[in-house]
Amino acid sequence: MLEGFLNIDLFYALIFLLSLIICLVINVSGAPGNWAMSLLALFYYWSMPSNSTYAFGIIVVLLVIILSIFGEIFEFFTSAISTKKAGGGQRGMWFSIIGSFIGSLVGMIVGVPIPIIGSLIAALLFSGVGALLGAYYGELVEGRNSQEAWKVGVSSFIGRIMGSLFKIICGCIALICMVVAMLV
Fold first, then answer.
1. Per-block mean pLDDT, blocks of 10 residues, the chain (184 long)
2. Are the CB atoms for 36 and 18 separated by under 8 Å?
3. For the chain, how many structural domains are there in total?
4. Residue 114 has what pLDDT?
5. Secondary structure (DSSP) of 140-152
6. What are the b/e assignments for 23-39, b being 16+ CB within 10 Å?
C-alpha cells in the first residue's frame, strides 16, 4: 500500500508544493507570485507522468491561470479605482505604484528581525505606506493642496492593501486547488 505513495513522484510533488508556498509568500511583497505559481503548475503538469498518484490535469492549470489573472486585475484596479475615486490623477497613480514597490522592498528589510512573518507583514504594510506617500507626492506635484493630496494618498493605501489581500487570497485558492487535485 505505501509503496504506491512513497516514490520519486512524491519527492517531486513535495518540491513542487514547497515552491508553490514560496510563490505565495512572495505575493506579499508585490512580486508576481501567482504568475510564478501558474508557470510552476504548467511545468508540473507537463513533467509529472499522467499515471502518477500526484498528477493533475490541464483543468487545474487553467484554473490557476484564471485565478492569477483575476488576482492581478483586481489588485491593479482596486488601487487605481481608489486613487481615481479620491480625485487623484495619473501622476498620483504612477507615483503610488512606484512608492508601493519601494515600500515593499523596504518592508522586507525592516521586518527581518522577525523571521519570515515579520518581513511579509512589513512588506505588505510598507507597500501600502509607499502607495500613500507616492500618491501624496504625485498629487502635490500636480499642484493640489496638502489636504487633497493626503486624501488621495490614504485612498491609495486602502486600495493597495485590499488589492494585495485579494491577490493573496487568489493565490491561496490556487494552492488549495492544486493540493486537492494532487491528493484526489
1. 65 92 82 90 92 90 96 82 86 88 83 71 86 93 92 92 91 94 89
2. no
3. 1
4. 74
5. HHTT--HHHHHHH
6. bbbbbbbbebbbbbbbb
The answer to whether the beta carbons of residues 166 and 74 sit under 8 Å apart is: yes
The residue whose grid cell reads 480625485 is 87
What sign results for the dihedral spanned by CA atoms 152, 157, 158, 160?
Answer: positive
CA angle 56, 24, 55 (to 5 degrees): 10
Please give the grid coordinates belonging to residue 159: 486600495
Domain that holds residue 138: 2-183
Phi, psi of 114 (to 5 degrees): -105, 100
For residue 55, give the C-alpha cell: 498528477
**120, 153, 34, 122: CA torsion to nearest 10:** 0
